[in-house]
Amino acid sequence: MSVCVSYLLQFGWERNDYDLLAAGSLAGHLIECGAQSTGGIFTDWHKVPDWDNMGFPVVECSSDGSFVLSKPPKTGGLVSFGTVAEQLVYEIGDPRRYLLPDVICDFSQVVIQEVPGDEGGAVRVTGAQGFAPSHDYKVCATYMDGFRATAVCPVTGPRAAKKARRTAESIIKRTKKMFKQLGLEDFSSVNIQVLGAEDTYGANARYKDSREAVIWLAVHHKQKKALELFSREVAPAGTGMAPGLTNIVGGRPRVSPVLKPFFFLHPKSQLKVDVHIGGELVESLSEEEPDTPVQDEAPPASVEDVPDADLPSGPHSYRLEELAYTRSGDKGDSANIGVVARHPLYFPYLKKHLTSSVVGEYFSHLIKPGVKNAVTRYTLPGIHGLNFVLQSSLGGGGVASLRSDPQGKAYGQMLLDLKLRGLPDLKSLVD
């Protein structure tokens, strides 16, 4: 919102210049996470120089809404089509309806073009569209939902993963016996992961065991005293269970409250803002109920959303990383994975082969059981990209989740290993 206000003041835009406000909002979206648009957490991380001196993004804006994104000279990092396109798809839902208080943005047709000759890289960004804002504000609230604790313990030696899993299960079994003796309820939920055994990948795991593993044991309970008991009972594993448990990272697990988030829309007309100066009320602001309704549904699917049925097939298979960049993030208990084609000629094949059902099956072990149509796919033809939204896939999300990746930061990286089969020789198309 502050980005829009600065544009209004600097360029004299009006509050109903929705395309321009969408462009200003896009500039804010691309730079809000700092180095994430200048090479931070980029898929091709090995091509990004000087992490120790990362340059943050600089945006040079024009009155027509276009802007150039670059970084200061003699700084580390990289500005390219890929780094900025990844940030465009970061933590969004439907790219055609990105809801903000001042404008509804359509980023689906945004174009990112590299500017030649600029040291460290630069891109010109155009094509944002905007519509009248919604009649509602987006609200994020929290409520108390019991307590949590997490134990992290490295385990070393032969069959480390098996030792780690049995250790975690034994700690839970031991603690449950004590709960029963003391008349306490059972855990609300328990999450056991063995990092190093690729538990996060579910059925897609390749390496089930190694000589090093890490126990990730997170628990949730309504009562704090129950988790204080759990916290004490982790330490005996170091002397009474598997050999090779070397440490409890951070010492005895800390018990902390769970503030669970929930989201809803609230009518703007039901809110009043009071402005006080020097302790005195000088103005009360409220928004009147609009006479005309705002269209709440997304615009109809465009031609670009429909896969080309006439694409040739072939004997080749490719890991997704060979064809695309990915970036993932969270919105509450939902995750999104943006996929951007490395070359425009790859895009039709991604649309045909990387469907919502394919992505849903790949991440089925992380999606809450019983959720139907959990994965929705959107297209961003301007950057030859796809955006997948995975509902109920983060175990509650944020501090409410017991997982080692509560915000889906690794989902995009995990998807890079997905193999797309039955394709022609795509590399020959771009050589």
From TrEMBL:
Domain AtuA-like ferredoxin-fold residues, every copy: 319-420
Provide the residue span(s) of the region labelled Disordered. 284-313
* Biological processes, Gene Ontology terms: retinol metabolic process
Q: Which GO terms describe its molecular function?
A: phosphatidylcholine-retinol O-acyltransferase activity
Q: Which residues form the Acyclic terpene utilisation N-terminal domain?
A: 8-277
Question: What Pfam families does the record tag this protein with?
Answer: AtuA (PF07287), AtuA_ferredoxin (PF23544)
Q: Which domain of life is it from?
A: Eukaryota
Q: Which InterPro entries match?
A: AtuA-like_ferredoxin_dom (IPR056362), AtuA_N (IPR010839)
What is the name attached to this protein's record? Si:ch73-132f6.5
